[in-house]
Amino acid sequence: ALPESQRTATNSPAIDTVIVLGDEASDASSPLSVAGRELVDGISKILGRSVSLGSSSSQHTSSTLVVGVRDAFTLLEGVPSSSPLDHTDGYWIDPASSSSPSRIIGHDARGVLYGAFAYLSKLAQGRLSSEAWGSSPRAPIRWINQWDNMDGTIERGYGGRSLFFEGGAIREDLARVKEYARLMASVGLNGIVINNVNANASLLSEESLANGVKRVADIMRPYGVRIGLALNFDAPRTLGGLETSDPLDENVVAWWTEKTHLIYKYVPDMLGYTIKANSEGQPGPLSYGRTLAEGANLFAKPLSQYGGFVFYRAFVYDHHLREDNPKNDRANAAVDFFAHLDDAFDDNVVVQVKFGPIDFQVREPVSPLLARLRKTKAVIEFMVAQEYMGQQTHAVYLAPQWQEVLAFDMRVDGKPSLVRDILSPSGPFGWPTTGYTAVVNVGRDTTWLGHHLAMANLYAYGRLTWAPESDARVLLDEWTRLTWSTDPEVVETLGNLLMDTWPAYEGHSGNLGIQTLCDILYTHYGPSPASQDGNGWGQWTRANAKSLGMDRTVATGTGFAGQYHPEVASVYEKIETTPDNLLLWFHHVPYTHVLKSGKTVIQHFYDAHYEGAAMVQTFSQRWASLRGKIDDARWEHVAFKLAYQAGHALVWRDSVCRFYHSLSGIDDDKKRVGHY
Ligand code: GCU
To answer: Which of 189, 345, 346, 438 has the fewest C-beta atoms lying within 10 Å of its C-beta?
Structure first.
């Protein structure tokens, strides 16, 4: 509940009754009835007073909150002629006046639910406006990809075992799945792929669909969350007993068509399939001499009759790449594999593109593929799971990184083309189905994500998919007010602390665009700059005794810079115009190269590592100042994690500095690294 001092007149509407309009209001599986229940429960808990659910015939007074889809209202008094109510999932909220009730109006039932959560969010923050307001999402696709395995483990999972699976089947107890759907709806997310991209085909057996997948879909549906499945391309062979999984083989086509019918029999509103094919050893159409488009269309055809989508991941690359060929570059792969197929994909194929060309690194330029498909729709893929970013043992708030990506101008045809506009139906390509997906690793841990502060990322991700122009700091403050406290000191301290986490992590891990510098071969966690070369994965730095960085120019390098539209390409082609923070991504330079800051590359490495690690040392102290202002249990959990993070930041600093010192033989001007 809000502290008494914050229950001001505006913040405490005298609501005593919630009325849900429409026949569906009494159908427990409808988002409308969920909205009603959430409002009754939420308002009474936030304001500490009793609120009841009225019937549609109850009288409307200024202490009533009336909610429903717009057609359920006889009069839409006060709603502007063009408003968020014109758009799918949009809502309009109108606080009570002395003579009329408060209203939450939705374009559709899900819009009503989003409106209900928006109302509760403002109320809980003590910020309910006395003016009417509304909102609708910029993008229709606002998804999550869980990488859960059927044995109950989660790939790159750091928050406990799967909510969905255990022992090769869907779990009996799905109570947390319901809470997850509720969490997703409260931040505007509307779809989830429940199993790993490295999928296990046995999920598709009729037994598993009827007794497992269907139950998950039924539980999540009332929250406006639809489910999708990740498929294994080779399932016709491994599960179906066919001799091949060739996408043009008629038995294979028939097998997938029948499977799709079967899935829709149990989940009639299934969103579609996520496919990771020809990636990291996974089977795919290329294994049968077919194109990636032929592979994607194999699934698109049977899905089209149900309105389902194929999310075809662009994460296709050769993971046995030879570093001795200076032209080899994994970063080139997505455009090389996909751009020429722009005309070849069916209408309901959506290419799923990681935000950067490599793999969720601490800093990458935006994937050029997002500006190279025009006819074929795309979604961007972010990662809440922090695989390369401290794995939810470090606190690293990622929304500032996503905000930068979304605000990047791709200059398609020489015109403004911000990534966030490309990812919207009103953007330059006019893709009706576009938007967002993120790898999320919610598990059974009581913290959901292994670290109480990691939830800031999931909150911000949801809000950005809805309103991608949002400011990372504003979102953080909202989250703090909702999750921890409305005390201004808590909001300010936690906000400042978390805003420092990504720069600090970049400082003590890999800077100047060199990538994260973690162990690339196995864990993707602690420092291992040496593992960044000589591996087949193609995550290279080309560091030697004199120089480092990937020459990705067109003139002398791998040509990657040329995958961007000309205005962007020309910025990255030249050292002088490449921003320092991406210098080593695009150029190979001596350690003594002088940056725009006036420092040499090697001195910048030393300084950034010391500064980043020093910043992390301050986190514990700053957190200590919040003791007593938030509950002890969560305070202690976070204090423990931050103390560990402080120590690990020093390990990072020393490993990376010593590695480059011994490689280059150049001492630190400030006499911290080297021989004096
Ligand atoms: C990374 C990650 C893998 C994952 C892959 C993917 O490489 O380490 O675990 O399978 O991304 O996105 O498919």
So the answer is: 346
